[in-house]
Fold this sequence. Notes:
Chain A is mainly alpha-helical.
Amino acid sequence: MRLKIEKRHENASTFSVLLMSILSVVVSLVILGFIILSLGKNPIEAYIQLVSWPLGTIAGLTQTLISMMPLLFTSLGLVIAFKMKLWNIGAEGQFYMGAFGATWGALFLFNHISNPWIMLPLLALLGAGIGAGWGALAGVMKAQLGVNEILSTLMLNYVAIYWVNYLVYGPWKGAGSYNFPITATFPKSAILPQYTANGINLGIFLAIATSFFVYYLLRWTRFGFEIDIAGDNPKAAEYAGVNVKKMVIIVMIVSGALSGLGGMMQMSGVLFRLQPNFSPGYGYTAIIIALLARLNPFVTVAVAFLFGGLIVGTQQIQLFLQIPFSLVNAFQGLLLFSFVAGEALLHYKLRWVRA
Amino acid sequence: MKKLFLPFLLVLITASVLALPLKIAFIYVGPVGDSGWTYTHNLGRLYVQKIFGDKIQTTYIESVPEGAGAISVLKSLANHGYNLIYTTSFSYMEQTAEVAKLFPKVIFENCSGYLTRANMGDYFGRIYQSEFLTGLIAGAMTKSGKIGYVAAYPIPEVVRGINAFTIGVRMVNPRAEVHVVWVNSWYDPPTEKEAALSLINAGCDVIKSETDSAAPLQAAEQKHVYAIGYNADMKKFAPNYYLTSAIFNWGVFYEKDIKEIMNGTWKPEKFWGGLDTGVVDIAPMTKLVPPQTQKLVEAMKEELKSHEFHVFEGPIYNQKGKLAIPSGKMATDKELLSMNWFVQGVVGSIPK
C-alpha cells in the first residue's frame, strides 16, 4: 500500500470551501491546545480566554473592531493587486507612507484648518495619495523595467519605515516631548469622529464601506474585468486590447492608495500622533488575510474581523495564562499552515493504492 | 471643591481596594527571557509578589506592540479589575495616558516617560549614575584608548547614559574615546552582536552594552575584549572578560509604590531615583578590575549617594569642545531629561 496524490477534476463547491475553512481553524486550535497542554496549562481555559473577551463583551468587541480597521484597509488593497496576480508585499510600507502623509498634513500643511470636514478629507487624500505613489513606484518599475514586484515592494517597506523613523527621531520630534521620538498630537480637526469613549471611530465604518467599493470595482466595472483577464493570462489580455503595463501601474496605485488610506485612518482614528513602530506588521498580516479570504472583499471583512479578534484574544491568553508571546506567532503560523494544507486537499485527493 | 474631591476619591478608592488583594499587571516591551530590561522588570515583579504574598496578585504580558496594541491590552486589564498597571516602556506613554483618562479608578505607572495624570505616575532610575561608575572602570581598563558603546535609540535617556559613561571614562583616562553605534532597537540580538563586532574591528578593546540583550557581551567574549553590561548582572554571558554592569533594581520602586497605594498615600509623581534609593546600582565588579580602580568606584559611588558629587556638574564641554555646562553649574533634571548633545570624547552623532 502506498499513498497516491491525485488531482480532483471537479471544482470545489462553496460548501466544501467553507467546511475546509472551519476545519482548518479547528485543526490549528487543536494543535495549539496540545502546545498549551505541554506548557502545563489548561487548553480549555485558553480557548475560553481567546474568544470570550474579544467577541463576548462590548469593550472587547470594540477592541476587535479597532484592531480590524488597519488590517481591513491593507488587505482590501492587497485583494485588488492579488486579483491581477501582482504580488504586492508592500502594504506595510504603503500603510506607513499613508500615516506619514496624514501626519504631514495634520501638523504642518493644513494645521491652520480648524474645520474637521475640510481637514479630514484633505488628510485622507494626502494619505491615500502618498500610499498610491509608493505603490506606483513598484508598479512603474515592474511595467517599464520588469523589476519583480515582490522584491521592490518588500524593499520599499524598509525605506518607508526608516523614512518615518528618520522624521520622528529628527525634524518631526514634537515640541515638549523632551526629545523623545514622538510627534506632537494631532489638532482636534484632524481627529476622526469618535462615537464611544472606548474608541469606536468613523474609520471602522469607512473600512467596511471600502469593501463594498472594492467589490463594485472588481465585479461591475470594466477595470475589474480587465484585472481579471490580465491576472489569468496577460498574453490573452494584450490580444484582447488590454494595456497590461498600464494596468500594472494603475492596480499598484489603487492598491497603495487603500493601504495609505488605512495609515491615515490609523493616525486620525486611533493613535493621533506618529511614533516609531506604530504598526506591528499589519501590512504583512494583511497578506494572510487577503489570501485566506480568497480575494473576496466581503469575506475579507470577516477574516480581518477574526484576525482582529485573534490579536485581542491572544493577548488575553498571554495575560491570564502567562503563555509566552512566541506562542501567538506560532498560532498565526499554524492557522496559515492548515489553510494552505486544506487548500491543497481541495484540489488534490489522497488515495491508498496497492503497490 | 474639585481639588478637595480628588484626594477624597483616591482615599475612598484605596480604602475599598484594601479589602481585596491588589491586582497588579505589568506590560513588557520585550520577552521576559531577554536577560536585560524586561528581565529586570520581571525580577521586580517576582520580588514584590514574594514580599506582599497574597495581599497582591500579579500578572504580566510580554512583547506588547507599541502603539495601538498597547491600548487594547491596557483596556482589557482595566476592565478585568486590575487596580495598578505598570507599562514598562516610554513607547506606551501616550497610550497609557489615553487609557488612564477612561479609567480614573485604576492607577497607571509608566516607566521612562514624562507624562503624568491624576491617576498616572512616571518612574525611572538615574541609571546614568551607574553608567558613570562603569565608565570609570572602562577608562581604567582600555589600552587602545577606544571604547565601544552599543546604543539602542538616539533618545535622551540613551544620550544621557553615553555622556555619563564618557565623563567617567575621561575622568580616569582624559584622552580615551567612546565610539557609539546605534542599533535602532531595544532588543535585536543579531544586530547588537554585529554592532559590537564592528566596534571591536575598529580597535575598541572594551565593549559597553546599553541594549536589552547580552549579545554584545557574547561578542566581546568571543573576540577577547572586556565587556560591561546593562540592566542586569550579565556575568554568565562573558565569564572571562566581564567587568561589571549598570543595573536596575525595579523591586525597590515597586515595593515603595505598592506600599503607598496600600496606605492610601499614593500621589502621581515623577519618580527618578538614583544610587541613593537603590533603584540603580552596579553589579559586583569581577577580579579583572584592579583593586585601586574598585576603590575609586566605591568612593565615587558613596559621593554620588550622598550628593557630594554630581555627574553633570560643570565644566562640561560638548563634542565640539564648546563649554556646555559652565563651572559651578549643574544640569537641571529638565535638561537631563531632554539631553540631545554629546560630551567631549564621544565619537558618533545623534541623528537630527
